[in-house]
Each structure stands twice: as structure tokens, then as C-alpha cells.
């Protein structure tokens, strides 16, 4: 439990504790923004099937090695506003691995509690997968120490649950699944 709280405290010091809303952003305006830049492989418009969201990933200069922000463009959840920043991405020492933070809870209009995980970009930059932390609490009781005091013989230890298939984003622009040659990434 303490380790999980420490991870949240570290994430909170690197990324903002609350999300922000960038007014006026939707799929069309994000395409225009992206077309006006020299796009990196991670930048683009992505679909997040687990949450039924269309997202934009763009470069961000926020310090602490955070290089990208993830912005909600469309969602089936009408309570989330387009333009809401739902997470951040930082580079790592490995070319295709990134540090990813996604906000995990809603606080009225904004999102809070960024959770950290490792994201992997595939070789052709069309999928970004990640495995969010899955923790359960395990209680251990030492019966030899049970008699003098109940709490001195008990400990609570976080334990990682079995491995699951990763979830992630699928790129839809530029190129993405439609393979339209006019949408190729331009390197300058």
C-alpha cells in the first residue's frame, strides 16, 4: 500500500495533479495543428478502444522530460469535454518505450490522480500499448506474535496481480490503419 501511495506522490510531482481543458480542440482542429508541425512518430490522432475515445498526442514542453500530452478529441462519455488533457508521455532510454501517465479519476469537470505505466510503441508507430498496474492487498498474519498484540503480528503487503494483455491506442492519423499515402509522416 505504501509503495502504491509513493508512486502516486512521485507521479503527482512530475505531472499536474489535475487535468486542464484546452478549449476548441476537436479532430479537425488537431489535424490542422499536426499538419503544421514536423511530426514525430508518436504524434498523431489515436483511437483508444477500451474507453471508446479518439485522442490527440502532440509535443509538450512541460519539464521533467515530459515530451507529449494526450488530449481527448471525441468520446462516448458526454461528461468529458473535448480538449481535456487525459495524460502525459515522457521519453526513456529505450527508443520505443515511454513513461505514460493517465488520469484515473474524475473530479467534477477535471480529471485527477495520474497513474504511471510503461508504454511501448510498435516498429511502424501504429500502436501504443501499455499495461496499467494491477495491485491487490495481501494481509499476512504471524500467529506466533498474535497473542501479545493483534497489530504487531500483522502486515499489509501490496502484491502484483497476474499479467494481463496490454491495452492501448491505435493510430488513425497520419497514415494509421487506412494507409492513405497522402497522410504519410513528413520528416524535415
**Major sheet: order of its strands?**
1-2-3-4-5-6-7-10
SSE arrangement, N to C: HHEEEEEEEEEE
Radius of gyration: 20 Å
Helix content: 10-25%
**Beta-strand content:** 35-45%
How does the major sheet shape up? 8 strands, antiparallel, barrel
Structural class: mainly beta
Separate helix tally: 2
Shape assignment: globular
List segments where confidence is low: pLDDT < 50 over at least 5 consecutive residues.
1-12, 177-184
Any descriptors?
single chain, 188 residues, mainly beta, 2 helices, globular
Task: Give the gist of this structure.
This protein has two helices and ten strands, in the order ααββββββββββ. It starts with a helix and ends in a 15-residue tail after the last strand.
Describe the structure.
- The chain is 12% helix and 41% strand.
- With 188 residues, the protein is mainly beta.
- The chain has one domain (2-131, 165-179).
- An eight-stranded antiparallel beta barrel has the order 1-2-3-4-5-6-7-10.
- The model is unreliable at 1-12 and 177-184 (pLDDT under 50).
Topology:
Layout: H1 2-14, H2 27-35, E1 44-48, E2 53-59, E3 66-75, E4 85-91, E5 97-107, E6 110-121, E7 127-130, E8 135-141, E9 154-160, E10 167-173
Antiparallel strand pairs: 1-2, 1-10, 2-3, 3-4, 4-5, 5-6, 6-7, 7-10, 8-9
